[in-house]
């Protein structure tokens, strides 16, 4: 089952109010922020809109839904230019009355412009974590500001930003950079208040816009000529994870690991945070404990033998880590497995 809502979005406040009216949820307002928190009958989490000057706004989806949510943008309106960054589960976009869907995967971003006739339709999946950051630009209100960004634009981007009446469809998708990921995190985790928060977050929104324009031009170079680190970096991070899996019992230090995959230590750490939500050391430790559990379940190895296979030379330290995660010692868990009580 799904819930379909027709939405207006001349600014983020209107978007949130329309959504709240349809879902019958109260809106929490604070300065330039408008937030609705999902009741348990609909899911969990929140959807928030933040308005800035010159027609710039940000929509944040950080929630999990019990039913598929379909947002059909109202026909006949000039919708804002959208720069969408997907941080979690895939979402689906299409233009109304045009064949074909666009799936925007985790760590991907899309630049989108609809027409008053071919409006946006977005589908958000149920029972999956949704984390989307959308930079919304009302091009009529942004017109006086555009001159600041002209040096970062080519002809296509200039035409896109100067299409004040939304006469042309535009769709471009790629993987967003680690720099943009960092700016989004700084935006969402800002703990300032009132005026200082507004100024800080507005600055981050413009940093994201500037980097996205640079990234679009970088995309035109082709995947083999990218100068901005994105999927190539993530592939190297995934390679680092493979090395950890394959060489767990003789894992070198982080500096050596970073060098092997062609990254510096800072980029490797940032990449693991973005891709796996943990540091490199936490990833190694978690994988060692998971492998310990696997060995206890599927082999006859004793605890000492397992500790060497997972690269921990101290049996007592392994037991400590295992108990911290599973609230049971390896010996106790092994006994449960032998007696057929493990899950």
Task: Provide the descriptors you would attach to this structure in a database record.
single chain, 343 residues, alpha+beta, 8-stranded antiparallel sheet, 12 helices, 41% helix
Shape: globular
Structural class: alpha+beta
Query: Helical proportion?
Result: 40-55%
Number of helices: 12
Tell me what portion of residues adopts beta-strand conformation: 15-25%
Keywords: DNA-binding, Transcription, Transcription regulation
Protein name: Helix-turn-helix transcriptional regulator
Domain HTH araC/xylS-type: 238-336
InterPro entries: Homeodomain-like_sf, HTH_AraC, HTH_AraC-typ_CS, PchR_regulatory_protein
Q: How would you describe this protein?
A:
Keywords: DNA-binding, Transcription, Transcription regulation. Pfam families: HTH_18 (PF12833). It comes from Flagellimonas aurea. This is Helix-turn-helix transcriptional regulator. This protein has twelve helices and 13 strands. It has an eight-stranded antiparallel sheet, with helices on both faces. A hairpin with a 6-residue loop joins strand 8 and strand 9. Helix 9 crosses helix 11. It starts with a strand and ends in a 5-residue tail after the last helix.
